[in-house]
Design brief:
This protein has about 170 residues and is α+β, with helices and mostly antiparallel strands. The protein contains five helices and five strands. It has a five-stranded mixed beta sheet with strand order 2-1-5-3-4, with helices on both faces. A hairpin with a 2-residue loop joins strand 3 (about 50-55) and strand 4. The chain is globular. Bound molecules: FE2/S2 (inorganic) cluster (2 copies). One FE2/S2 (inorganic) cluster binds next to loops.
């Protein structure tokens, strides 16, 4: 069975015919062509596939695309605007919150959701918000520093230095 899926992805309205059993992560990567969202596990364990659905972080590997009609999906691919990184993207860059980078898209989207609802999270709040996201490389300290950097920058306390040059 197939469904006509009408939704918004990174601000762009779309209508697509999708199999009822197609996962949101496969829809985004294969149908929409947005490969920023990663698949890191057999399902529901790592958080690499985290996207925002109506502003809330969700595992795209556990979500059927056909259930997303009428929603607003945001992926890491759509965060930067006019070549300028968002505060959380600059945070990961400045604080070296990314090593192999595989977890980074999910970490960034979960962090972005946190900062939208809590502009000044303490370390516990950051750890809690990222509890569903696994990183094998960084030991998490640099990731937490990246979120703290972004929070400070959003509050006007850090210099914005991470603009894209390409
Ligand atoms: S790929 Fe979705 S949680 Fe790992
Ligand atoms: S940077 Fe490698 S898994 Fe997080």
């Amino acid at each position: 069975m197939k469904t006509i899926l009408s939704l918004t992805v990174n601000g762009h309205a779309r209508d697509d015919v999708v199999p009822d059993n197609m996962l949101l992560v496969d829809y985004l990567r294969e149908k929409v062509g947005l490969t920023g969202t990663k698949i890191g596990c057999d399902g529901g364990e790592c958080g690499a596939c985290t996207v925002l659905i109506d502003g809330r972080p969700r595992h795209a590997c556990l979500t059927l695309a056909a259930t997303c009609g009428g929603t607003d999906i945001e992926t890491v691919d759509g965060l930067s605007k006019d070549g300028r990184l968002t505060a959380i993207q600059r945070g990961f860059n400045e604080k070296l919150g990314s090593q192999c980078g595989f977890c980074t898209p999910g970490m960034i989207m979960a962090s972005e959701a946190l900062l939208r609802r809590n502009a000044n999270p303490d370390e516990d709040a950051i750890r809690q918000a990222l509890a569903a996201n696994i990183c094998r490389c960084t030991g998490y300290v640099k990731i937490i520093e990246a979120v703290q950097f972004a929070a400070k920058e959003l509050a006007g306390g850090e210099l914005a230095t991470g603009e894209l040059s390409q």
